[in-house]
């Protein structure tokens, strides 16, 4: 196991918002998750694909990837292609750009023991570009004022600023499963200003375990989110509405509830899951007990089932058309468009109420449609 930084770049969004959470989280074991392992597998595949595309010596890791599938393959190919395009663009302006893969980036000049690993760094005359692959599907990640990316950029500046006289920093999030490529550019001066005025003083508080606890959306990946008293207080503010029927609430009150309800739901689920895990090892909660949930019947051995059914003259297999991704893999993108382009459509998504900050365009509502007639 490698050393983990107390104030890592990947957790910077949390500890910059809630400084004392860094020391508190360090007291808890990092148990990991299937999502984290899937992300690690995807990064390993991305590294291999990029090195292979660039003609570098590398070993195919697929046999060792627990979560490998064709979607991960497609994402890694896309990432490698994107990075290669950025390198080509850099070569148009610089004769000797540098590309670094899985590079350790040290930003301890600003954050005590601060370091992280950049998926890809491209350095050219006047510019450094940091590219970070995100395999996650649940949270759309933006590069704009992203503290993880800004910490990585500070580490890249420490390595190359004196050599390439950098004045501009480009930070890109490549998140293929959300069709998200987000790039944010900032001047070196602006980045250093942020580091000195925001990062340095907050990191000092966090490293010392000082500062104020603060709850918010940054709590999502906190190890103590289920037990945190500040998060409980933050979410229980909704109790003052007494949860009357919506007809008795003003639009303004409903808007307040909507702004907090996702975090409230997430918090409640975190508490339930934590309580379940504790109950399984002996904790007692008044009025509650652990029972066996519902389950569905399963075959012991599908191959043996198929043989048994076939021996009786029946077909044990279901037949269906391959999915769009699988079919595109079979035919190739060009052939897929030639043969099936006219048979594919994208249905309208289900209406969803989201904050104004969401970048998707607003739908026309029924009242807006009526007013246009």
TrEMBL record:
GO molecular function, one term: hydrolase activity
Native species: Clostridium kluyveri
Keyword Hydrolase attributed: yes
Region spans: Disordered: 354-373
UniProt protein name: Nuclease
Transmembrane intervals: none
Pfam families linked to this entry: DUF2800 (PF10926)
Family matches, as Gene3D superfamilies: 3.90.320.10
Lineage of source species: Bacteria, Bacillati, Bacillota, Clostridia, Eubacteriales
């Amino acid at each position: 196991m490698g050393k983990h930084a107390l104030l890592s770049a990947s957790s910077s969004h949390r500890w910059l918002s809630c400084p004392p959470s860094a020391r508190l989280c360090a007291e808890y074991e990092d148990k990991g998750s299937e999502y984290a392992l899937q992300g690690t597998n995807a990064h390993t595949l991305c590294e291999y694909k990029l090195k292979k595309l660039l003609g570098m010596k590398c070993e195919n890791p697929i046999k060792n990837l627990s979560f490998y599938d064709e979607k991960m393959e497609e994402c890694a190919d896309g990432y490698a292609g994107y990075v290669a395009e950025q390198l080509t663009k850099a070569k148009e302006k610089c004769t000797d750009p540098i590309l670094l893969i899985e590079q350790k980036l040290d930003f301890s000049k600003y954050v005590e023991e601060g370091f992280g690993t950049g998926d890809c760094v491209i350095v050219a005359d006047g510019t450094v570009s940091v590219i970070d692959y995100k395999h996650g599907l649940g949270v759309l990640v933006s590069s704009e004022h992203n503290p993880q990316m800004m910490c990585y950029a500070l580490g890249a500046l420490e390595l190359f600023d004196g050599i390439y006289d950098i004045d501009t920093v480009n930070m890109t999030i490549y998140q293929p499963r959300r069709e998200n490529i987000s790039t944010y550019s900032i001047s070196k001066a602006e980045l250093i200003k942020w580091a000195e005025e925001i990062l340095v003083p907050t990191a000092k508080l966090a490293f010392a375990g000082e500062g104020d606890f603060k709850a918010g959306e940054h709590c999502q990946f906190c190890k103590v989110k289920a037990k945190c008293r500040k998060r409980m207080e933050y979410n229980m503010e909704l109790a003052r509405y007494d949860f009357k029927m919506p007809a008795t609430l003003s639009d303004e009150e409903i808007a307040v509830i909507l702004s907090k309800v996702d975090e409230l739901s997430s918090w409640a689920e975190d508490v339930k899951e934590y309580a379940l895990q504790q109950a399984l090892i002996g904790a007692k909660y008044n009025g509650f007990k652990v029972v066996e949930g519902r389950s569905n019947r399963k075959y012991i051995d599908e191959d043996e089932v198929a043989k048994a059914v076939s021996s009786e003259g029946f077909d044990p297999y279901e037949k269906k058309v391959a999915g769009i991704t699988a079919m595109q893999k079979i035919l190739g993108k060009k052939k897929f468009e030639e043969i099936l382009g006219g048979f594919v459509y994208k249905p309208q998504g289900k209406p969803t109420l989201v904050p104004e900050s969401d970048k998707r365009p607003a739908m026309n509502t029924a009242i807006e449609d009526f007013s246009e007639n």
